[in-house]
Amino acid sequence: SAVISQKPSRDICQRGTSLTIQCQVDSQVTMMFWYRQQPGQSLTLIATANQGSEATYESGFVIDKFPISRPNLTFSTLTVSNMSPEDSSIYLCSVEDRWRGSTDTQYFGPGTRLTVL
Amino acid sequence: EDQVTQSPEALRLQEGESSSLNCSYTVSGLRGLFWYRQDPGKGPEFLFTLYSAGEEKEKERLKATLTKKESFLHITAPKPEDSATYLCAVQGAYGQNFVFGPGTRLSVLP
Q1: Rounded average pLDDT over B103-108
Q2: Count of CB atoms within 10 A of residue B54's CB?
Q3: Residue B47: is its pLDDT beyond 80?
Q4: What phi, psi does A56 have (nearest 5°)?
Q5: How many CB atoms sit inside 10 A of residue B47's CB?
Q6: Which residues of A touch B98 (CB under 8 A)?
Q7: Which of A24, A88, B48, B60 has the fewest CB atoms within 10 Å, measured from its CB?
Q8: Is the pLDDT of residue B93 over 90?
Q9: Is the pLDDT of residue B2 over 60?
Q10: Average pLDDT of the segment spanning B9-35
């Protein structure tokens, strides 16, 4: 499976600021996703990062708050804008490689733990 | 709307005490059911994909099974290193996004 890295691994930010999280994959993949995992909760999909076009957002998530870029098939960024303490979560990048595999399995990065003060 | 529930919410076992975790789902046509393990502070680690009722997959002390309405993750003779949160997810037949369950927190005591 692909090796996925995320930067930063954790950060503590002030209210009102923005943070950009990077996701790098060691091989080209078809699909990239961004999830949020709030403390003690399961995973919630924020959006699908589309290469060369605007991301597809899930209900409850908007581009102004969570702008996403995907300039190529191995890299994506998620920005958490105008942060509030409610944005404190783990943010996870996942990938799905429909070219290579017979499955639609998603593989996850290590996550970025964000704390907003 | 696709939904996934998991039970129990938390499970405490003694080392060597076998048990099962349940994942119940409702989905408009199942494309796949996925089991993940998540350790604290880390991303989910893929364990199994199941596609059709009657299918079984095994890996070390873990065995996953699937029926038309639920999946079980059987843990045989668990060890303390099996302690983690186990997540179940489903994907609908039309390639929709994954829907994750709330997870089962497993603690295996030495």
Answers
A1: 97
A2: 9
A3: yes
A4: -100, 115
A5: 18
A6: 43, 45, 106
A7: B60
A8: no
A9: yes
A10: 95
Chain B CB contacts of A90 under 8 Å are: 41
Q: Tell me if the bond preceding A71 is cis, omega within 30° of 0.
A: no
> What pLDDT, on a 0 to 100 scale, did the predictor assign at position B76?
98
Q: Does B96 touch chain A (CB under 8 A)?
A: no
Which residue of A1, A43, A113 is in closest CB contact with B100?
A43
Q: Which of A17, A106, A34, A116 is nearest to B45 (CA)?
A: A106
The amino acid at residue A110 is P
pLDDT, residue B94, reads 73
Distances (CA, A) of A83 to A17, A20, A58, B105: 6, 11, 19, 30
Q: Cβ of A33 and B34 within 8 Å?
A: no
Strand ranges inside chain B, DSSP E: 3-7, 10-14, 19-26, 30-38, 45-50, 56-59, 62-66, 70-75, 84-92, 99-100, 104-109
Partner-chain contact A42 B87, CB within 8 Å:
yes
- Where chain A has pLDDT below 70, the residues are 98-103
